[in-house]
Amino acid sequence: MAEIIKKRGFQTALVGLRDKILTGELVKGDHLSEVVLAADLGISRTPLREAMRELTDQGLIEKLPNGRYQVCSLTRNDVRDFIALRGIIEGNIFRLSAEKGISEEQRLHCFETLTAIDKVLNVSSSSIDFDEYMDLNAKLHDQFASICASTVMLNELARVSKLPMASPGAFWVGRLHRALPSNHCSRRRISTAPSLKPFATAKAHAQKPWAENMRALRTRTLIGF
Questions:
Q1: Going by C-beta distance under 8 Å and a sequence separation of 6 or more, which residues neighbour residue 79?
Q2: Of 42, 132, 149, 218, which one has the greatest count of Cβ atoms within 10 A?
Q3: CA angle at residue 166 from 160 to 172, to 5 degrees?
Q4: Exposure of 203 by Cβ count < 10 A (0-12 exposed, 13-18 middle, 19+ buried)?
Q5: Lowest mean pLDDT among 55-59, 72-76, 87-91
Q6: Has this prediction a pTM greater than 0.90?
Q7: How many CA atoms lie within 13 A of 165 on its CB side?
């Protein structure tokens, strides 16, 4: 129970702080006060600190030499390019995987993860454990990517995934419920296609979440755009 409470606290902090940044409530250059944010989000400072470290890895905030955090300076074009770059790299990784083919063992591992995601999504949208979903989603992306067996491509994907809004878990809160079912159907089409073909299906799935984010950008004030 304590672990569940801890994960919920982190999830609340991560989603809440990221939403403040992405909606423009916090803009580039703003310093982040742990005391104020913890009180505003209704959480303790421990999960907030964990969320701030995670958002630092995602590139939305940065840690200053004095130990304080501030919102990073990004432009719409920056985010667009980060999103496009991940889609291109992951799409080409899927192409290499399709050309190489998938072993029965790899296919079984992918289906085990897909089944676990089915269980997470087979509840009302308000009851979805997003923390568990994001962990499984990232695991499935890694499983798909590892099939290509290209160290160079996998290293580049890992690097690009650290850019702002370019990781599998970089969701827009308001659009997450709607995106999950269609994204999961895309994964199943990829995994059930012979030898992970066709490439077009895989590449479209790789780029689809990022296209969702860009549509959201046009309706929100993001980081001072």
A1: 164, 165, 213, 214, 217, 222
A2: 132
A3: 170
A4: buried
A5: 72-76
A6: no
A7: 31
